[in-house]
Design a protein that fits this description.
The complex is a heterodimer of chains A (about 100) and B (about 140). With about 100 residues, chain A is an alpha+beta fold. Chain A contains 2 helices and 4 strands, in the order αββαββ. Chain A has a 4-stranded antiparallel sheet, with helices on one face. Chain A starts with a helix and ends with a strand. Chain B has 4 helices and 5 strands, in the order αβββαααββ. In chain B, a hairpin with a 2-residue loop joins strand 4 (about 115-130) and strand 5 (about 130-145). In chain B, strands 1-4-5-3 form a 4-stranded antiparallel sheet, with helices on both faces. Classes of the chains: A alpha+beta (about 100), B alpha+beta (about 140).
């Protein structure tokens, strides 16, 4: 029983402990109208470092467009970060900006 | 014999075409969603060389041929080169630093008379072990004037 508890504790520690590294940050021109903020995140789980495409990044733009129909998104802060767990990495691109709707 | 040959070519093909891919940098530009646009995409790539992996490969080949077990000459050369290859870097070293300069012209050529918006720029790497594809991709929308 003691061994099981110990093993469970070690496993939980290994599986839940994580390190985050920020790969890149960028920002575009910030508009005067900053009422409506939109945010999108695209992520991909990579097991043992095996990844065969980076298409997940495209979802960020698609999601931002959906949240701001017929408008413009400006002042976009983009972050690309990686969270590393045991044998698994989470690659994520987070983008947040301001939606400018057409007046009239 | 023919079967062995086809397997050999198949294994070579798999070795050279399968590679893991990673994103180094992603940037989303301002998005103009006021009218529909045409999707355009350009990318430029250059071959990067993983000096450490290539030295290890060459060393293991030469050692297995000569029956030696000590550290080989290639490994030592790689260590010397690494002394003056310090500092931050993105991906593996390439031998043409200007390979990405034509990106803007290529993008403009795809949309010569329109407004280019929604630019998503991705710096990615295709890893093939010793060599890598150091890729810059731009995805955008071309809005007619």
């Amino acid at each position: 029983m003691k061994h099981i508890r110990c093993t469970l504790l070690i496993l939980t520690t290994l599986l839940t402990s994580q390190c985050v590294s920020l790969r890149s940050v960028s920002i575009t021109q910030i508009p005067k109208q900053r009422q409506q903020e939109v945010q999108a995140e695209a992520k991909k789980w990579i097991v043992l470092g095996f990844s065969f495409n980076n298409e997940y990044v495209n979802d960020v733009v698609t999601s931002l467009k959906k949240q701001c129909p017929f408008g413009k998104v400006s002042g976009i802060l983009t972050k690309h970060y990686v969270t590393s767990y045991l044998l698994v990495h989470k690659h994520a691109v987070d983008a947040r900006g301001f939606c400018l709707q057409k007046r009239g | 014999m023919a079967c062995y040959k086809s397997y050999r070519w198949l294994s070579f093909w798999i070795f050279f075409t399968s590679g893991c891919t990673y994103v180094h940098h992603a940037q989303v530009g301002d998005i103009d969603n006021t009218r529909p646009g045409r999707k355009i995409e350009v990318n430029l790539a250059e071959i990067g060389i993983d000096l450490e992996a290539s030295a290890q490969l060459l060393d293991s080949v030469s050692r297995s041929q000569q029956g030696k077990k000590e550290k080989g000459a290639f490994q030592e050369i790689a260590e010397i080169i690494s002394l003056f290859q310090m500092g931050p870097q993105t991906g593996n070293p390439v031998y043409n630093a200007t390979y990405a300069d034509r990106l803007r012209q290529k993008l403009i050529a795809k949309c010569p008379h329109g407004n280019i918006t929604n630019i998503l720029s991705i710096r990615e790497l295709n890893d093939y072990g010793v060599a890598s594809g150091e890729i810059v991709t731009l995805k955008a929308d071309c809005l007619p004037l």
